[in-house]
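<goal> How does this chain fold?
<sample>
Here is the protein in question

***
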Amino acid sequence: MTQSNTIDPKIRMADMCREMLGGVNPSTVYRWIKTQGFPKPKKLSLQCSVWSVAEVNEWLATRGEAA
């Protein structure tokens, strides 16, 4: 059995909105989840959600191709 040594970095909402999405509002992210197939967050605890950087980048790439 081969193990993959790749690490899938995670990012929190505020950082994702600022660094990856050009400063969009968090409510926009939740709207995109419902209407445009944006990746759903992973819950680390009741008050801590994170997104996969790879999944967000993949969504951004497919969105860019559609535009």
About this structure: The beta strands are 10-12, 42-45, 48-52.
